[in-house]
Amino acid sequence: MKENADKNLGDISLADVIAKIKQLNPSEFDKMIIASDTGVSRCDYFYVNYRALSAHRDSLKLTFPVFGSITDNFLEFEGGDAKHGELSKFPSERIIDTLSSKHKIEASTDGASLPSDFNFPIDVDANGPNPTQDLYFIADRTYKEQCDECSGNKIITCLDNECSGRHIWDCVECAAKGQVTCNKCAGNGRLDCGDCSGSKWIRCSSCGGDGKVMDKLDTLSAVSSKSRSTRVVKKDCKKCSGKGRKPCNNCNGGKVTCKKCKGNGKVTCSNCDGHKQITCTECYGDKDRYGMIDCPQCLAQGEMGYISFVKTTLNNHQGDKLFDNGSPLSGISELEILNHAVKDAPKIRTLVNINDNTQVSRDQHVEKYAEQFQSDFSLSLDTFDKILEEELAYQVIPCVTVSYTHMLTNQEHEISVLNFFDGAELKFHHSAEEVKKDVKDATKKVGRFFGKMLKTKKFKSKEDRKKEIRLMIYLAKADGVIEEDEKKFLASSINSIDEFTSTEKSEFFDLMNTPQLPALTKADVTFSSEEKLNEVIGMLSNLAASDGNIEQAEQDLINQIKSL
């Protein structure tokens, strides 16, 4: 692991970067111009896969009545420092199990704990720390004593405020009479009638309290004795004799007998149920324990027991993380770096810290990252939570970024090499040959249309320029190798292709990228004038000679152009 890290941390020069790009993507490299003074931005990423084993210790306390079922067990814990020393292993955990399962008593945090309570060894076997660690009790805080609540008597005076140890007492509510005044009739035994509200009268239902009723009266016509007429008149109500009311038949003088007390004015006392005395349901009534209850603290055992102890728990901690040693490179995501990480690499043990055996063998490359994990998990070499074992695997992933100029567009871009030495990957930050529809394309196309129709000087010049660039691409690719000097000459000659439409730009890129160039035709080498043709041939000759030597394939192409 360290050997591989040393290799991946080795120097990376600009020449190394250029060679790597050429190796990984020779076709793209042919269009890239990387200046000799280009700076190399570098970041070495560390992928660390970490695991640790730690020990956590809790200082706990059991407080419990000394039940008969645990008496024998507790004898094993008694005796203090003189018998057990400061710390001692649990003779048996049966007492904890019994208190929990049978009496629902669990341990709580020991507020009197001291740092020295943790000074006992980690329990180990041939394979290292035991998954289940022994419990240790603190001898001087493990004892039994007489219950201070009942002074060992097992019972105390009844805690009920009313009882206060009396067990039986006169009922205060009824003054020991067994009866209390009826609260419905206030002891009168009679209530106002609900029908007449105590008035003795009720409204006549026949006339509705008006005293009058409507009646029809037949009369003889004044004109003819044979004809009769009917009219409606009001008459006194016969039921109430025109008074509108009548005597209430449901009461006597406006009063009725109270149903709750049945006219007695008294009801049975609900507090004592008429018994005149109250008997406490909480305390004993026998001669020896009159007015007493079982001690709630010792549960009538007379003694309380205390066991202070320390519980050790082993915990596993795992994690993996990518660290950047230096300034991270812009434009590269963490995920892209992690794609080069070997996540299942075997781990090596870098730390053992068990009892008197402490060994740390982290190498200098990963030490600070291991300490970072240790801090993240809140682990310590000296105090709890204490790290016991540590193992890890790490990998250095060197990455570099350089800028380059595209040979055809003369625009600057960035390219990165990820994991430079092992399984290197190229990352183009932007597509140098991405052709977007230009808003000026329509204008350019219209201009070319009319220029072609009218054979304008501007049109001829642009056509000449287009053919010139095409022939330079042909010459650059003629011998199968585009030298750096040829790239620079071509780039300076072309300068820019912004004047062309997106379609025309795409044609240039396609020519540059195609492995087999189409055969030249007479139209490809026909220019607006003989003078321009000679100028282009001269430029092509200079391009061929830019690397110091005109190759035969280059000369043959120039001759072919002349012949066409």
**Cα separation of the termini:** 64 Å
On the 0 to 100 scale, the average pLDDT is 87
CA gyration radius, whole angstroms? 55 Å
Residue share in β-strands: 25-35%
Sheet with the most strands, sense and barrel status: 12 strands, antiparallel
Number of domains: 4
Shape: flat
Residue stretches low in confidence (pLDDT < 50, at least 5 long) are 439-455
Please identify the structural class as seen in this structure: alpha+beta
How many DSSP-defined strands? 26
Number of helices: 14
Fraction of residues in helices?
Answer: 25-40%
Structure description:
This protein is of the alpha+beta class. The protein folds into four domains: 2-52 and 313-428, no CATH class; 57-150 and 299-312, no CATH class; 170-279, no CATH class; 441-563, no CATH class. Helix content is 25%, strand content 28%. It contains 14 helices and 26 strands. It has helices at 2-8, 14-24, 26-29, 71-75, 80-84, 94-103, 334-338, 367-376, 441-454, 457-476, 484-494, 502-513, 530-545, 552-563, and strands at residues 32-33, 41-65, 87-89, 108-109, 124-125, 128-129, 136-138, 143-146, 155-157, 168-170, 179-181, 190-192, 201-203, 212-220, 228-236, 245-247, 255-257, 266-268, 277-279, 292-294, 303-325, 348-354, 357-360, 386-406, 412-418, 425-428. Strands 1, 2, 3, 4, 7, 8, 21, 22, 23, 24, 25 and 26 form a twelve-stranded antiparallel beta sheet that branches. A two-stranded antiparallel ribbon has the order 5-6. Strands 9-20 form a two-stranded antiparallel ribbon. α9 packs across α10, α10 (457-476) packs parallel to α12 (502-513) and α13 runs antiparallel to α14. The longest helix is centred in the C-terminal third of the chain and has 20 residues, at 457-476. It is flat. It starts with a helix and ends with a helix.
